[in-house]
Inverse folding.
């Protein structure tokens, strides 16, 4: 698939297989090293679109398994992923998952951290409201 420049397709398939393996209890860390190596390859090649796709898929897995701390860390580390996602549905999906991540992180946080997460959640929710 690499020779045909279908890295995005490979990453999506790895994500699906990872989810199935985790749900069946076969391998708890299935596919994580493949996504990490793909992310490293994309960063070294300057392929921001592939990097954004990998971050979106990792975020989907974190949200699916309700790993909110890891999801918040990923959203912060990834930066502005929306501008590099080529398909409009992927950008919308990422924005929705980002808002959900911040809302859930705000629910479990305390003090200034809660206010910070709530502020980021409201910012993302306002972006979604402007679309409608």
């Amino acid at each position: 698939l690499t020779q045909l420049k279908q890295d995005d397709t490979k990453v999506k398939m790895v994500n699906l297989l990872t989810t199935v393996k985790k749900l069946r209890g076969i391998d708890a860390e299935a596919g994580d090293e493949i996504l990490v190596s793909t992310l490293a390859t994309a960063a070294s090649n300057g392929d921001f679109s592939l990097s954004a796709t990998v971050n979106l898929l990792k975020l989907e897995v974190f949200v699916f398994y309700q790993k909110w701390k890891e999801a918040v860390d990923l959203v912060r580390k990834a930066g502005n992923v929306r501008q590099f996602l080529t398909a409009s549905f992927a950008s919308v999906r990422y924005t929705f998952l980002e808002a959900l991540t911040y809302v859930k992180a705000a629910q479990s946080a305390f003090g200034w951290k809660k206010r910070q997460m709530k502020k980021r959640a409201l910012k993302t929710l306002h972006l979604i409201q402007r679309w409608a």
